[in-house]
Amino acid sequence: MDLKGLVNKARAALQKNPTLIDKGGDAIDKVTKNKYSGQVDKAQDAVRKAVGAPGQGTQGQTPPANPGEALPGQQSPQPRNPQNPQ
């Protein structure tokens, strides 16, 4: 399996079970004794947004069928040129 396939598999798993995002953040908070809880919360929100998982700010919305599509109210990402990656 290539890296893209692995990323897509992880994305699908997090979309189906977004509580894994919370559990991961909770584990980090426990180990760091909440020292970085603000940063952990921001990272959790970024992961939810990146995978299209429901969560804070997207509660009740369904994830996009195509990971390149935007949720309602979001700008769609710019298409990447495979010849000139950014």
TrEMBL record:
Q: Where is this region: Disordered?
A: 47-86
Superkingdom, natural source: Bacteria
Name of the protein:
Antitoxin
Give the source species.
Gordonia namibiensis NBRC 108229
